[in-house]
Automatic annotation (TrEMBL):
The keyword Hydrolase applies. It comes from Xylanimonas ulmi. The keyword Hydrolase applies. It comes from the Bacteria. This is HAD superfamily hydrolase (TIGR01450 family)/HAD superfamily hydrolase (TIGR01549 family). GO terms for cellular component: cytoplasm. Signal peptide: none annotated.
Length: 338
């Protein structure tokens, strides 16, 4: 299940798996806007028996707020169907700290609630001698907040980041994410933080434990977080092309970032996924589409670079070449669209 290639499924993924761990930004919505086909596809997948847990690297908001937003976008969701990086951060803190330990929280309400729920005393200043700093994103964080974190970390506090996403998708584009703010504290202290969010598989394990799924599928839009976490945690991962990472990124992905399935959007949950097969003359064939690597360059069939099945064939061709020690240069991979 965790080999470095694509997987195939003769039945829709919503029937092949019993639990989907679904990312939010770039998958279920974009900023505060809906993504086309997301609501209908998730509701239909539930109707086929697929349970959903929304797993997000956003640590600033409470699960109740996230559930309310999803419900408002016609994706009915209960708070216990949301797993945030803040909750994962609290779980990570428990692995080293005793209950009641002082933790400086630099982040939003969701992180404050999660750290308190994990049994720790929240403080607001490095002068309170915290043994750890929990850092997460909040849009109103200021220089003074980052400075307090730096003072505490420099004094020996354990630095735990809810996640290290460098960018954050918004309705206006991509803004600096928590990773950029964590980088400021790192630059001031020289200390490498621990991270609770994706690509660490901590949240996925917590979500599976909560929901009790036997066959869990990760669904995300970012290779470096969602799909890397799936690979590292041993979960199959579906990459949907509605967010950060592109089809071309899939083709060029290193083994630890590769998805197991690729789909244009969340309708991919309702579809079978044909598996590319090696045919004549080095062509990888998938549902009538084909791609191959010849002389170090990716070639696709005469139908062109559009279509999810040519994306799958191209992934198989380039990954096979790379794994054989013949990587394809990025300049030799054209843009592909689903």
């Amino acid at each position: 299940m965790t080999t470095a290639g694509l997987l195939g499924s003769d039945v829709p993924l919503a029937e092949a798996y019993d639990l989907a761990l679904v990312d939010l930004d770039g998958v279920a919505y974009r900023g505060h806007l809906p993504i086309e086909h997301a609501s209908d596809s998730l509701v239909a997948a539930r109707g086929r028996g697929l349970r959903l847990v929304f797993v997000t690297n956003n640590a600033s908001r409470e699960p109740e707020e996230v559930a309310g937003q999803l419900t408002g976008l016609d994706i009915p969701t209960a708070p216990d169907e949301v797993m945030t990086a803040a909750q994962a951060c609290g779980a990570l803190l428990r692995t080293r700290l005793e209950p009641g330990a002082r933790v400086l929280v630099v982040g939003g309400a969701g992180l404050l609630t999660a750290v308190r729920a994990a049994g720790f005393e929240v403080v607001s200043s490095a002068d309170d001698a915290p043994v750890a700093v929990a850092q997460g994103f909040a849009p109103d964080l200021a220089w003074a907040d980052l400075a307090e974190a730096a003072y505490a970390v420099a004094a020996g506090a354990w630095h735990v980041a809810s996640n290290r996403d460098l960018s954050l998708p918004t309705a206006r584009g991509y803004a600096p994410g928590n990773g950029a703010l964590v980088g400021a504290v790192m630059a001031a202290t020289g200390v490498e933080p621990s991270s609770a969010g994706k690509p660490s598989p901590t949240m996925y394990r917590l979500a599976v434990e909560r929901a009790g799924g036997a066959r869990a599928l990760v669904v995300g839009d970012r290779l470096d977080t969602d799909l890397a976490g799936a690979r590292s945690g041993g979960y199959p991962g579906l990459h949907v092309l509605t967010g950060v990472s592109s089809a071309r990124d899939d083709v060029l992905a290193e083994p630890g970032l590769r998805p197991h399935y690729v789909g244009a959007d969340l309708r991919a949950l309702l579809e079978p996924h044909p598996l590319p097969a090696l045919g004549a003359d080095g062509w990888w064939e998938c549902a009538g589409r084909a791609a191959r690597v010849a002389d170090g360059r990716l070639e696709v069939d005469r139908q062109g670079t559009a279509g999810i099945d040519v994306v799958r064939a191209a992934c198989a061709a380039v990954w096979a070449a790379a794994d054989a020690g013949e990587p394809v240069a990025a300049a030799d991979v054209p843009e592909l669209t689903a």
